[in-house]
């Protein structure tokens, strides 16, 4: 019996330390770090209310949430501290504070960030499912307290050509997506260590350095890739109807050189005034490279919108592409009614007035012409009389 007791005393702690995740509830909150460990994370649950713990290294140096070494990342919120250390000092470490007696301290080591390989050729407005995984010792990390606080982002850094202008600033980075491990959206299972994002490549075409990294200080990990973003393979045209019996139209076309002919499909969600949203979907025939989607104008006044997705296959890589069709708003306005009878009567009155004015003008011109003729005749007669009076009589010649 005594021999079994000694076996339990010595063997059980050794088995506990053999695990990659260790839970400690010792009264003095001490834990030993082996020399072979290159990276370790302490997850310290605290009683409430309490401040962040103080971490004491084997050499007695103290670290705080707001004052710690550059090789540390420290995340603190209500009830928990997550402290990651690269190349930690071997020996006994200690956490001083109101450490929870129920949860204590958990230790994970050798955490790695593994991400999907992005296609080297992306397209503007393309949306693709992209995943990242957290592992420890090549196995999925399933520690929910840790996973719930991890925040991963996909950041695009534009790569510009050096033109020798030292005063030019580098373009601002673009956050394209934020990962989640919550079992919602594109994420399949919450808490399984696999973070999923619907990567919306809504950036200007060009060359980018893509960085996948933690951003909230839980741990410092980053993976980088280089990609080229090309212009979108599809063009979308919306033609709004302004007539009661004419349909609204969305036309989607693809580039025949880059997209497989006949692979185009589309899905629209349409919301019109005083109507429930309706779904419109169709696919191209084998020899088609464009689609036309229509919905009737319901003649109700108010705001309306549509949005959707387009699906097509890339010719070069045979990759199945998904494009988001951004939400587009438009407005139904009341039709303008015109009283044709009043318009016709008005037009007839205008024509009659114009005819009367023309007739009056003609009469005035005739009277003016006659008056001018009389004046001219009178003047000419007076001139002839005046000339005759002015001509002298010839002298009488008497013959010799």
Task: Write a compact overview of the structure shown.
The chain has 400 residues and is of the alpha+beta class. It contains 3 helices and 25 strands. The chain folds into 3 domains: 18-109, no CATH class; 113-230, Immunoglobulins (Immunoglobulin-like), CATH 2.60.40; 234-332, Immunoglobulins (Immunoglobulin-like).
Give the secondary structure arrangement, pairings included.
Elements: H1 2-17, E1 21-24, E2 30-33, E3 39-45, E4 54-56, E5 62-63, E6 72-77, E7 80-86, E8 91-96, E9 105-109, E10 111-115, E11 121-123, E12 126-136, E13 139-140, H2 144-147, E14 152-158, E15 174-178, E16 194-201, E17 206-214, E18 222-230, E19 234-239, E20 248-254, E21 265-271, E22 278-283, E23 290-295, E24 302-313, E25 320-332, H3 340-390
Parallel strand pairs: 11-18
Antiparallel strand pairs: 1-9, 2-8, 3-7, 3-9, 4-5, 4-8, 6-7, 10-12, 12-13, 12-16, 14-15, 14-17, 17-18, 19-20, 20-23, 21-22, 21-24, 24-25
InterPro entries: CHP03503
Protein name: TIGR03503 family protein
Signal peptide: 1-18
């Amino acid at each position: 019996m005594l021999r079994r007791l000694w076996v339990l005393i010595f063997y059980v702690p050794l088995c506990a330390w053999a695990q990659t995740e260790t839970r400690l509830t010792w009264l003095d909150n001490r834990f030993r770090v082996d020399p072979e460990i290159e990276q370790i994370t302490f997850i310290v649950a605290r009683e409430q209310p309490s401040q962040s713990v103080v971490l004491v290294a084997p050499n007695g140096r103290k670290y705080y949430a707001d004052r710690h070494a550059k090789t540390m990342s420290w995340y603190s919120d209500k009830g928990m501290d997550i402290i990651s250390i690269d190349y930690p000092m071997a020996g006994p470490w200690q956490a001083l504070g109101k450490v929870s007696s129920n949860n204590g301290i958990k230790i994970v080591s050798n955490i790695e960030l593994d991400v999907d390989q992005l296609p080297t050729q992306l397209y503007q407005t393309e949306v693709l499912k992209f995943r990242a995984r957290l592992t420890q010792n090549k196995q999925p990390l399933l520690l929910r307290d840790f996973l719930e606080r991890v925040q991963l982002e996909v950041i695009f850094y534009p790569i510009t050509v050096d033109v020798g202008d030292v005063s030019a600033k580098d373009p601002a980075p673009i956050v394209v997506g934020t990962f989640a491990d919550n079992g919602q959206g594109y994420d399949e299972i919450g808490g399984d260590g696999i973070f999923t994002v619907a990567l919306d490549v809504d950036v200007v075409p060009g060359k980018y350095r893509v960085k996948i990294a933690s951003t909230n200080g839980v741990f410092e990990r980053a993976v980088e890739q280089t990609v080229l973003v090309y212009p979108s393979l599809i063009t979308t045209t919306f033609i709004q109807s302004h007539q009661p019996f004419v349909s609204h139209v969305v036309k989607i076309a693809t580039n025949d050189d880059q997209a497989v002919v006949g692979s185009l499909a589309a899905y629209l969600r349409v919301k019109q005034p005083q109507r429930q949203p309706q779904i419109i979907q169709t696919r191209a025939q084998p020899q088609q490279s464009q689609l036309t989607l229509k919905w009737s104008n319901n003649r109700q006044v108010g705001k309306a919108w549509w949005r959707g997705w387009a699906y097509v296959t890339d010719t070069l890589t045979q990759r199945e592409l998904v494009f988001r069709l951004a939400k587009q708003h438009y407005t139904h306005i009341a039709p303008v009614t015109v009283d044709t009878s009043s318009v016709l009567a008005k037009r007839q009155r205008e024509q009659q007035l114009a005819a009367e004015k023309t007739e009056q003008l003609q009469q005035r011109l005739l009277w003016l012409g006659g008056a001018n003729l009389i004046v001219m005749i009178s003047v000419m007669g007076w001139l002839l009389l005046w000339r005759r009076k002015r001509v002298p009589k010839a002298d009488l010649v008497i013959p010799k």
